[in-house]
Amino acid sequence: MPRNCPNILSSGVCTDAQCLLEHNIHTCDACNYVALNIREYNAHISGKKHKRAVTRGIPQPFYCPACQCNVNSLDWGQHSKGRRHRELAQNSNIEPTAVFPAETHTFCGICQISISSHLWDRHLHSASHIRFQRYAVFRAAQEDSEKDKNGVTIDGNPDFEILEPTVGASGATISLKISCTVPLAKIVLVSVKLSADLGSQHNRRVASPFSVSIQGFRTKVSNIPIVVNLKFSQEFIGRYQDRVEFHFMDQQLNKAFIISRMAHAIVGDRNAHEELKARAPYVPRVRNKNREPETKIVEGEAPPSLNAIPYATRLPKAQIPNHLLSTLNVSSRSSQENVESIKNGFLPRIFSSESYGRHFKNLVWVEEHQMEQDLERYDMENSILKRHNHYYYLAVPGLAEKRPSVLIGDRILVRRQNDQAGHWYAGHVHVVGMIEVGLVFHESFRGWTASQKYHIRFKLNRIPLQRQHQALDTVFTENRILFPDSSHLPMVPMPRPPPRIVNKLISTNPAQLQAIASVVAAAPGSLPFIIFGPPGTGKTITIVEAILQLVQKNPNIRILASAPSNSAADLIALRLSQVLNNDQLFRMYAPSRLKGQVPDPLEPFSYYRDNGLSRSCFSVPPMATMKRYRVIVSTLISASIVFGIGMPRGHFSHIFIDEAGQATEPEAFVSIKTMADPSTNVVLSGDPKQLGPIIRSGIATKLGLELSYIERLISRPAYNLRTGHGKSIVKLVKNFRSHEAILRFPNEKFYGNDLEPCADPKTINAYLNSEYLPNKKFPIVFHCVSGKDDREASSPSFFNIDEVTQVKVYVEKLKRDRKFRTTDHDIGVIAPYHAQCLKIRTALRGVADEVKVGSVEEFQGQERKVIIISTVRSSKEFVSYDIRHTLGFVASPRRFNVSVTRAQALLIVIGDPNVLGLDPLWRSFLNYIYLNGGWKGPDIPWDPSEPVEEAGGYDHVARNVALADMNDFTRRMEELTMEGAGDDDVDAGVDRPWRDVE
Which residue intervals define the domain U1-type in the entry (predicted)? Predict the structure, then answer.
């Protein structure tokens, strides 16, 4: 390609399609093939592969009505034989149909898509087409370089497969044999090089674990093979590859040429790879837009727990309005178009106290719509039911993992395989086990046999959503609660701490004392008070002390304390139960809660109804008793019970919400909007820098449902930490959890360096000077593992076997260590993907069964002496994907913050720096670890002393580097193949075609 081409970019690749032809590069759309010269192209079109492709026809975009997806016409045969297609087509003969008529569209063989003819020129100049075109040229050059040519053959497979770390450390060797089949050829082996040895001007050089050496001194290639030894030496678990380039010279023709081979090696546990590998390839799930509607549902028998509470008010149906449903069901719009459509068509133009309920009701409906769609993932076909008495038992894969989550009182639809379409029976869940649920149907449910097959659908439990709608429909519009401003700040002097503190640990903590004093002294009808509690600063202890101080202060005070989860609510109740008796404290549970899920010390503080019902369950005592309790503790949604049974508005003087950052605003307001009056005080505690609520709908997220109530308030001027300190907000700053080195980075990035390390030295220094630490005084390790992320079957969740193996190695070492003793309960393993959690649990089975392995969400609010983080992602598809696609969950700053702040004494992060380094936050963190001597494994692939670009862009840099390296290789292959060795003019051979020795 001439260097003076006006279309050449800085990367050296021409972007114009016509120019490619002028520069002697040809493409074959029939085969999706790129030839680097006319001779190679002519050889290709005369070959069998091309003729077969032409016989089959030029690719056309076909549409499969069964799978509802586009299929390349050349791939239709393979597609139609697939298991998923056959199941969806139900063995019927479904013909493919052309999506786009050929007279109006052109099929791009490079991008494998159909383009409207009037947009064809624009497509040829689009970034995506150019990117795929460059890659196709590179692949053509790479494939050509891997061919034996000019009579020279290279025998031997440079794949070391899977090596145990001990073998990798000592080194393994593979011999490759070079010979020539042309008797009188004068070809010599000039050199053998690795691509890493050739160097890259774009990346920091990292030493290759491969090395090559020529056995003996002979360089002439003949029928007597030249032996080249390829050695691999690497002890660290991971996947490694390099390109071996054999440089030859044909002395008769004065031509240089290259033959290359890709060398591969995996360091790891062969048995683990076999046990944990994907059993079936990942097939993306396509939502069935023509899903059979449920025209008739015969309701089953509801469990007694649904009537266990004497509700005085009815829940609203609150079905999604048809006009909103129609808008959400339009699939032709882009995500941004849907956001704009909902925003302009359904949300109030002004977000105020008067429009507050309507605003959030629409967002809750949008979220519900996505939840319904997500639940379809768990539909089952050809399932069987077991029967015992009047219960029908259904095995539910993933039940123990809450995928799907099934509670007593939920509904599951079943339809016999051959029954009339649309006719379903709703089985109400009466029993929930580890692997199966017990259902009760209507008495008309007939025809059961042990072998009868059923179709299964899980239905969304709408009660939590209905409770939110019920609260949002109330007329509570207090501006001091919904939209507090500086005018609501108290004008009185800063209050003094109470004289007698119940928990003596608080007595020396000024921030905690100030928070308690402000809550206790606040006048009725004050603006909401926020206790901003970063990791390990004791926010739950603080609100418990504030509750106890309020109870001691005034016998008329009544408190409703809630949290998003049962575990968080139980923690509050357990701490309060150490001081309050069961006449003062009531732990209110939903009737669906199982007795075995309740901590034993809290049983005396709950009400378990047993009056001869077929299943006893939790309930509430009579109203007179409920009114006498000084403190009632529940989850946010279950807090609606007090309103439902007729508790009068204003009964509670204070409403506390712990972990408020994890709840949506409508969830937080279930209690506030139904129970607060002009005198009620609201206290929120949490950390908006940690995980927010889990939102499934991308539309609802963009429209603000993911923004928690506490985070929205903190952004308001009344909660400025300087002017509002002690009046509207207190930030806790003493961290009682982590070693200073573990705390330092998140402290700087998220908390303005305000946090003070105050943890017990005996705990946080437990692993200093241990073998786990490259720097014996720095208790953080980044273990570099360049693995492979994978998926299987229909699950979109990623797993990485190489990182699983490395996690197991660390856990086994920790458990064996007699000097630095570590139990299962001291270790926590965090992975951002469910599939990785399952693989790690499988690997640790029988080794460390009690080690908690879970998602970031499962570890919020928890701590362990040792935390191991498996980041999972190790995709190298920089050419095709952007940073969000490549990093996924790992790129979330909140997930990062929660993950790295769980550890007390030892933090081990396992991951691929090539991927993690695309994100500025992770790159800064890896630099911090590297510069403090905590790096383990292959070297860091960038200069850690360079300042990090906080704006990001590293994904674009990585993609451009990959493209530039591809172009370098392609250009080098052209030069070495087309130019004579003695030519002085570097452009002399540019127009010479490649020599076709065949």
Answer: 23-57, 59-92
366 in Cβ contact with 328 (< 8 Å): yes
Which helix (H) or strand (E) segment holds residue 492: the answer is none
918: left (phi over 0), alpha (psi -120 to 50) or beta: alpha
E strands along 237-379, which residues?
238-250, 255-267, 296-299
DSSP bridge pairs for 246: 192, 259
Among 288, 265, 308, CA closest to 157: 265
- In the chain, CATH 3.40.50.300 sits at 492-734, 741-952
Q: Is the peptide bond before 678 cis (omega within 30 degrees of 0)?
A: no
> According to CATH, where is 2.60.40.10 located in the chain?
154-268
Give the model's pLDDT for residue 138.
76
Q: What is the CATH number of domain 741-952?
A: 3.40.50.300
What's the burial of 134, exposed, middle or buried (CB within 10 Å: 0-12/13-18/19+)?
buried
Whole-angstrom Cα distance, residue 624 to residue 224? 101
E strands of 181-216, at which residues?
A: 187-194, 210-214
The three-state DSSP-derived secondary structure of 2-55 is CCCCCCECCCCCECCHHHHHHCCCEEECCCCEEECCHHHHHHHHCCHHHHHHHH
DSSP state string for 640-690: HHHHHTTPPTT--SEEEESSGGGS-HHHHHHHHHHH--TT-EEEEEE-TTS
* Beta-sheet strands, E only, within 801-933: 827-830, 852-854, 864-870, 903-911
Query: Are 529 and 729 a contacting pair, CB within 8 Å?
Result: yes
Say if residues 226 and 189 touch (Cβ distance below 8 Å): yes
The identity of residue 49, as a single letter, is K
Measured CA to CA, the distance from residue 2 to residue 313 in angstroms comes to 81
Segment 965-971 long-range contacts (CB within 8 Å, at least 24 positions apart):
965/200, 965/202, 966/134, 966/135, 966/137, 966/138, 967/11, 967/12, 967/13, 967/134, 967/138, 968/12, 968/200, 969/138, 969/141, 969/142, 969/195, 970/13, 970/36, 970/137, 970/138, 970/141, 971/1, 971/12
The CA dihedral of 793, 794, 796, 799, to the nearest 10 degrees, is -20
For residue range 310-354, list pLDDT tens digits in order. Answer: 999 999 999 999 999 999 988 667 778 889 999 999 999 999 999
CA distance 627 to 893: 43
| Amino acid identity at 884 | R
Separation of alpha carbons 669 and 467, rounded Å = 10
Query: What is the rounded CA–CA span in Å between residue 49 and residue 998?
Result: 17
Residue 936 bridge partners (DSSP): 783
pLDDT, one tens digit per residue, over 34-50 is 665 666 666 666 676 66
Residue 842's region, left for phi above 0, alpha for psi from -120 to 50, else beta, is alpha
Residue 226: C-alpha distances to residues 156, 181, 213, 401 (Å)? 12, 13, 11, 57
The CATH superfamily holding the domain 154-268 is Immunoglobulins (2.60.40.10)
Buried b (16+ CB within 10 A) or exposed e, 290-326: eeeeeeebeebeebbbeebbeeeeeeeebebeeebee
Give the three-state DSSP class for 117: helix
Pairing outcome for strands 33-35 and 608-609: unpaired
**CA atoms of 51 and 37, how far apart (whole Å):** 19
Nearest-angstrom CA–CA distance, 2 and 636: 69
Q: How many C-beta atoms lie closer than 10 Å to residue 452's C-beta? A: 13
Of 634, 480, 474, the closest CA to residue 559 belongs to 634
Which pTM does this prediction carry? 0.84
Structure tokens at 755: 């946090």
304-313 confidence digits (pLDDT tens):
888 889 999 9
**So what CATH class is 492-734?**
alpha beta
Res. 865 pLDDT band, cuts 50 70 90 = very high
Token pair belonging to 459: 């239905």
Residue 590 CA to residue 990 CA, distance in Å, equals 78
The rounded distance, in Å, linking the Cα atoms of 592 and 410 is 9
